[in-house]
């Protein structure tokens, strides 16, 4: 039972911290497997020009893979986090999305090959089941890079944008920012993962699903630090302590963290895997066969 | 009596809010004068390629100028804020610093010309007296763009880097971030504005000057919102209200805002103008005469 989560965003947006908070693990202590491909050459800014082909800039983006086996909902889950350090960190981020798109495609290809083999039941599903895209909390708009990346990835991968480090914005600023972001995404027909609604769902369940979708992009906060739970001094909770107050990661008045955790882990993990298999992979497969 | 302040940083880092907070004014309501030069053509990302010359990328950065007459320390002051919208906001930020360097140079040239005229006493000093550079509060390091810009500007302009929206970082994270930033700047010999120490200064004054320098880059917070002063309900103070607490802009436990205001306005305004005239402009002038 695998779950493969792609995390994309500029350095310093709290990606590592959020993954640790979501899965209650420490991912920073694992050694990453670096995917060896074109973009993993030791290119720095001066080298980039030497690597130019007709497509232009060779992006300085690596693909890093870390796996852990967890128990989630009583089930053994192999969680793999795919990170893309370097994305958006150079002065010139042209084509920064290419190594990431290549990674998604190569995992589709890998599955395509394995489907054609004799011993299919032994296939581990390495396809990307969801992409968490971290948006800088400027309060203004999605950047050109945000829009370019999202438009390139939403048809290959379940896209879940999040507003990183959203504690920087007041509730009012979050509202304004979210509605502007959604408008920009709509204008470009960029599709986000939508929790499916089933015929047999009751009203309550339907409302929860709808709310999960309406609240995107999730304004999230994560933390590697713990304090005593003010309501239960025997428990520890993740928090960020400031001179002016304490932000509690799991407090729904403080951020949408619990909504993201519900979507990603507690309620829709299976739906994310299914949409990958039945819709996104099938689209990839038919496009490939047509060519 | 003029003070010309250049503000540079990506969109959404709170530049407008900080200027309003520093000078207790509303700069967003003034119409900006746009400087008409090469980079002011309506270039968007697709056009950029058409404008390439041997130097490569034509940056999509404008220069905007806004002026207000204020009373500071009982003196009439013409404050001019020079902004560079578009800086760092494109997918490719190569050469984004060029329009800004051009602006500094053209103001030096303007002063050079006016020095050669008959009626010199009527000359208004339009040279850039200080540059506030806004660093994204990632908590990690200065970005390649930060370093490139700072190394290009520090010999032309009094450089004062600030950590924008620093309320996103805990006190501990600010300490780590500041020492990494200073190390990176030292490694490249990037010089920041240093409050001068005079022979007749007493020990107290010397300590204040040294502290102002050691605390750079200033971890700042600004706000356009006001609340009642908890200590004096007849007064209003700038603040940011969150579900978990209230950040007070002028509270020195909450940010270095008051230190920046001391440096920029209350104590070293004259020193900034003098260093521009006696050191930075003189260097520019001699280099120009040599050529
Ligand atoms: N204010 C705030 N800071 C955060 C949050 N998450 C992480 N940080 C801090 O941001 C810095 C960078 O976090 P990190 O997880 O390493 O970011 P990454 O480079 O995207 O992996 C660290 O100092 C974290 O403590 C958050 O939700 N809010
Ligand atoms: N957390 C935080 N937010 C700020 C701060 N200063 C401004 N903001 C908010 O950040 C957003 C962008 O601010 P603005 O001044 O327009 O940024 P600019 O694009 O750099 O001029 C607005 O929603 C501001 O209220 C700050 O010091 N801390």
From TrEMBL, chains A, B:
Gene Ontology terms, MF aspect: GTP binding; phosphatidylinositol-4-phosphate binding; phosphatidylinositol-5-phosphate binding; structural constituent of cytoskeleton
User: Which Gene Ontology terms describe the biological processes this protein takes part in?
Assistant: mitotic cytokinesis; septin ring assembly; septin ring disassembly
- Positions of the Septin-type G domain: 1-291
Cell location: Bud neck
User: Which keywords annotate this record?
Assistant: Cell cycle, Cell division, Coiled coil, GTP-binding, Nucleotide-binding
Q: Which domain of life is it from?
A: Eukaryota
A GO CC annotation recorded here is: ascospore wall
Iron-sulfur as UniProt keyword: no
Q: Predominant location of this chain? A: other
Q: Does the keyword Nucleotide-binding apply?
A: yes
What family is this? Belongs to the TRAFAC class TrmE-Era-EngA-EngB-Septin-like GTPase superfamily. Septin GTPase family.
- Protein name from the UniProt record: Septin-type G domain-containing protein
Q: What organism is listed for this UniProt entry?
A: Kazachstania africana (strain ATCC 22294 / BCRC 22015 / CBS 2517 / CECT 1963 / NBRC 1671 / NRRL Y-8276) (Yeast)
């Amino acid at each position: 039972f695998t779950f493969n989560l792609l995390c994309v965003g500029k350095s310093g947006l709290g990606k590592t911290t959020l993954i640790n908070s979501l899965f209650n693990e420490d991912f920073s202590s694992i050694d990453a497997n670096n995917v060896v491909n074109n973009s993993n050459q030791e290119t720095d800014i001066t080298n980039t020009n030497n690597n130019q082909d007709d497509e232009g800039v060779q992006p300085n983006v690596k693909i890093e893979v870390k796996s852990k086996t967890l128990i989630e909902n009583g089930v053994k889950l192999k969680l793999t986090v795919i990170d893309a350090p370097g994305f958006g960190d150079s002065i010139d981020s042209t084509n920064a999305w290419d190594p990431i798109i290549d990674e998604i495609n190569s995992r589709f290809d890998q599955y395509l090959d394995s489907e054609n083999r004799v011993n299919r039941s032994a296939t581990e599903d390495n396809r990307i089941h969801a992409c968490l895209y971290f948006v800088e909390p400027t309060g203004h708009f999605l950047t050109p890079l945000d829009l370019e990346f999202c438009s390139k990835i939403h048809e290959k991968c379940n896209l879940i944008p999040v507003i990183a480090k959203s504690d920087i914005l007041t509730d009012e600023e979050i509202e304004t920012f979210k509605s502007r972001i959604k408008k920009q995404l709509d204008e470009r027909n960029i599709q986000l993962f939508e929790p499916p609604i089933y015929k047999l769902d009751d009203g309550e369940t339907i409302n929860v699903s709808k709310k999960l979708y309406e609240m995107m992009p999730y304004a999230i906060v994560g933390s590697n630090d713990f304090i005593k739970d003010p309501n239960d001094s025997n428990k520890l909770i993740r928090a960020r302590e400031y001179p002016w107050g304490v932000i509690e990661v799991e407090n729904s008045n403080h951020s949408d963290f619990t909504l993201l955790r519900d979507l990603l882990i507690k309620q829709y993990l299976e739906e994310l895997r299914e949409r990958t298999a039945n819709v996104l992979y099938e689209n990839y497969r038919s496009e490939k066969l047509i060519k």
